[in-house]
């Protein structure tokens, strides 16, 4: 099989998507926000193992990218909520595809490589789409 080189220019849609959604935490944050607005503390509890500093950084990146809206209610004590924008909702099918891939990968990884069962598991996952 011949492989064709892909040039990733600054305007490349794949590169842009990876810059917006790449990293260890961004898709997990978007997944939590898909159900509705959340405050910082709730996000901190729902996204396991993320430090406060990293969560602040990732939320700022997602907000600057236009995927998440940060709403400060101007109350004391401060009440800030985060929710997906319409642009952020456009990323949800990407999140769903990543989840499907993860499920297929886990199912495949449990089987010996190259086995008949391994091929059947991949065919079954592909037919579910």
From TrEMBL:
Where do the TM regions start and end?
A: none
Q: Which InterPro entries match?
A: HTH_HxlR, WH-like_DNA-bd_sf, WH_DNA-bd_sf
Which Gene3D superfamilies does this entry report, sorted A to Z? Winged helix-like DNA-binding domain superfamily/Winged helix DNA-binding domain
The domain of life is Bacteria
Keywords recorded for this protein, A-Z: DNA-binding, Transcription, Transcription regulation
User: The HTH hxlR-type domain covers which part of the protein?
Assistant: 12-110
Q: Does the keyword Secreted apply?
A: no
Single annotated GO MF? DNA binding
What's one Pfam family here?
Answer: HxlR
Query: What PANTHER family is this protein classified in?
Result: TRANSCRIPTIONAL REGULATOR (PTHR33204:SF29), TRANSCRIPTIONAL REGULATOR, MARR FAMILY (PTHR33204)
Q: What is this protein called?
A: DNA-binding transcriptional regulator, HxlR family
């Amino acid at each position: 099989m011949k492989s064709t080189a892909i040039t990733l220019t600054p305007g490349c849609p794949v590169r842009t998507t990876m810059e917006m959604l790449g990293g260890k935490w961004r898709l997990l944050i978007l997944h939590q926000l898909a159900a509705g607005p959340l405050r910082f503390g709730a996000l901190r509890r729902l996204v396991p193992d993320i430090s406060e500093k990293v969560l602040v950084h990732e939320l700022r990146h997602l907000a600057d990218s236009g995927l998440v809206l940060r709403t400060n209610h101007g109350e004391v004590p401060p009440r800030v909520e985060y929710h997906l924008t319409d642009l952020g909702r456009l990323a949800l099918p990407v999140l769903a595809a990543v989840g499907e891939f993860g499920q297929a990968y886990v199912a495949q990884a449990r089987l010996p490589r190259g086995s008949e069962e391994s091929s059947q598991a991949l065919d079954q996952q592909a037919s579910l789409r």
